[in-house]
Amino acid sequence: MTQGIYKTGVAAQRLEADAYAENFSDLHPAFDWHEAQVEADRCYFCYDAPCQTACPTDIDIPMFIRQIAADNPIGAAKTIFDQNIFGGMCARVCPTETLCEEVCVREIAEGKPVQIGRLQRFATDTAMAEQKQFYQRGRATGRRVAVIGAGPAGLACAHRLAMHGHAVKVFEAKEQAGGLNEYGIAAYKTPNGFAQAEVDYITAIGGIDIEYGKALGRDLAVGDLVKDYDAVFIGAGLGAVNSLGLGAGDIAGVENAVDFISELRQADDLAGLPIGRRVVVIGGGMTAIDAAVQAKLLGAEDVTICYRRGKENMNASEFEQDLATSKGVAIRHWVKPVAVTSEDGAVTGVEFEYTRLEGGKLVGTSEYFVEPADQVFRAIGQRLDETVFGDAGVDLDGGRIRTDAEGRTSHPKVWAGGDCTNRGDDLTVTAVAEGRDAAESIHKALVG
Amino acid sequence: MADLRNSFVGIKSPNPFWLASAPPTDKAYNVERAFKAGWGGVVWKTLGAEGPPVVNVNGPRYGAIWGGDRRLIGLNNIELITDRELQTNLREIKQIKRDWPDRAVVVSLMVPCEEDAWKSILPLVEETGADGIELNFGCPHGMSERGMGSAVGQVPEYVEMVVKWCKQYSRMPVITKLTPNITDVRRPARAAFNGGTDAVSLINTINSITAVNLDSFSPEPSIDGKGTHGGYCGPAVKPIAMSMVSEIARDKDTYLMPISGIGGITTWRDAAEFMALGAGNVQVCTAAMTYGFRIVEEMITGLSNWMDEKGFTSIDEVVGKAVPNVTDWQYLNLNYISKARINQDLCIECGRCHIACEDTSHQAITNTIDGKRGFEVIDEECVGCNLCVNVCPVEDCITMVPLDAGDIDKRTGKTVSPDYANWTSHPNNPAAREAAE
Ligand SMILES: Cc1cc2nc3c(=O)[nH]c(=O)nc-3n(C[C@H](O)[C@H](O)[C@H](O)COP(=O)(O)OP(=O)(O)OC[C@H]3O[C@@H](n4cnc5c(N)ncnc54)[C@H](O)[C@@H]3O)c2cc1C
Ligand SMILES: Cc1cc2nc3c(=O)[nH]c(=O)nc-3n(C[C@H](O)[C@H](O)[C@H](O)COP(=O)(O)O)c2cc1C
Ligand code: SF4
Description:
The structure holds two protein chains of two kinds. Chain A is built from 16 helices and 19 strands.
């Protein structure tokens, strides 16, 4: 039975059954052959192409687009995977509007970049549909490497290590691989079980043994791993969530945005997922946008993102912000939460104070309002759970693992990459680049 | 993985992609970059006789035509042969061949049509260690006014004579480069063959004027208000070049002669098509001049993937694959009957097929279906000409469907015969009637 969008409180089945499938379908549908040809024809095959420089994994973009134009999508896929084994996921989730497509010379010339992301997807989808495997496990070196976390950083590292012939053991805390590809990325960016299909495609190289339900800090210690393995790579992402500091911990309806998204990503039946009628999301990044948009798509009547600074300060790209507003999400700027209001232990709203900049410092204006809400999502950032490292000698910097350009940590046998490092910028593609580069560094260290 | 290694008249290269004799191969600097990018070989920019080098114009030497989005479709040039000192070129050729022993280095030559001129330059080239020579009988501008280039290539007797000299005074393989500015390309090809050439290469550029400036009334490119015809090349010339290659490949006199295919080759697919029509390798100029040397990567991976997909393991298996299917018009099967079919799901109703057929062909496509805008083939009128397919903006929306033997062709009311029958035996053919009588 449909409950409707006006039902107060937190409720499931707000929409007609078929509305869910439509709402959560592909954000950027796949190109067909003709569309890919037309789009590929727009690429100028630039010299020293700005798009390639802007790609954290340095994909030879002009080349792969030329290969698509020459009707060689398989060759194009190899060009992509050579640099980025998660080329399929990145084609779907990269904020291309702030990466390759932002600097496309067509963007500068006519405000319409070549749609690099969608072309990348065309090529990688073609190769994956044919189960075309381009890489073989290297001849066994006899070296063993432990990888913590089966997210983009960990698996990119594992894949490259396997190519070099090292035996890789991946320890993953959860019961499934993929990291935030599986638990975080918005559902409409990666529908139809793509994340798991990609994990299978990547691990098909062999030589990568994933052990699930094994967490560093709980079941494993860095100190032991460095004794048992020739090298250790940490790609554990950011496990902990920043708190609001408002003491709203046990008020029903106040949740972490990442938990809500994770639950949504794992739900078999989206209609069964309860959502508030009035939802407030606190934060200004990709997580805030994703939580807000998906709340709206589940049938929430009013969804409001509240951010303490201005539009230009938001971590979410302009495209993401526009996406949210196009779905009917309201975004309020220059407001900061000061209290959560509740009745009978359930949230009724959030009290905000207006803010402004004073001499470069963010200050409250002592003017307040209450945004009514029956569900509140915190999306003010995740952080590293540093307790998992014990006193193994892995130094942190600003709450994240300190690494050099190759991914080396302060411990000579430990490398790290992805969100958990001080160099990560919380993008899938950066995690992939750092995992890959750390693997090269490990390889160099192990075989000289 | 397909093996792309190529042996052309005994000249070995790691792949069949050579750069044609032109600016990309005029200096060691360029050739070095080309080899680093992966090109299998080069034909060095044409050398002239010892003495003061030729001079080029100092204004624009290129004209072009573009597609709507400024994609370069055809390029024309009025450049001459190398304008650098002969000794400088020879020194650099020697150095390049020494540094890149696995790549093909062929030297293009054009000297006056006199025995001594050829006799004296050949040992100089041989001394560089180059793999072979290519005789430039093709350049259609400037040099031809001086009795060289296409002025030689257009006279089969001269072609044969010069080839003979080169075979006589040199042990290097000789590739004869043909001009397309001739009525029947088989004649100079046969002449070269009779002279003992090891191979022919074609095409060189086609006489052309790309544009006229309607303010100054000068042809483009304009040198101080005047222009001259230049040599046309690039994607636009590919169909012309392929036809010429195929003519030589299936000629009873020259079918055994190796061919180096040139003209508009831009992607692996172009190269594969040339090779299928009988080219033992290919040469590229305009595509490299438009996009840079890196395009060879696309060509290599594309050709290799396609060969894998088709199960070809070596270049030899591809070369000439299409030649048996190139025939004369008179041998085409007149009992093969096809009709256009419009896929209504794909049709975007632009109406181009209708107007093309209605105004200029056979009035075989409707403009309404049941009183509403709609396009459908009228089988009673369709002659199967393929025009609608070619003007339709949507791939595979209109296709040509052959009728099966036993079907009735609604246009003629006749039953489709299962037998092959061509013009030579057709009742309307006067020659066939005579033979029957
Ligand atoms: C809601 C949300 C939406 C996002 N949307 C986008 C987007 O659209 N585009 C984009 O580019 N980026 C996006 N990101 C960021 C992107 O997902 C991350 O930057 C990327 O996943 C980082 O990869 P990682 O491998 O470093 O970490 P993760 O993906 O977090 O993977 C870490 C893995 O380690 C495991 N792990 C954690 N702790 C332990 C332990 N102690 N022991 C063993 N295993 C452990 C985890 O279970 C997980 O599998 C989004 C992030 C979030 C939260
Ligand atoms: C600027 C320019 C200069 C050329 N110079 C020569 C030359 O010196 N000798 C020669 O044999 N062909 C010359 N050519 C012809 C090319 O080698 C080639 O035959 C022709 O361009 C067709 O190939 P393409 O369509 O790949 O360009 C020249 C072509 C161009 C564009
Ligand atoms: S390409 Fe342009 S810059 Fe280079 S020589 Fe020619 S006109 Fe000058």
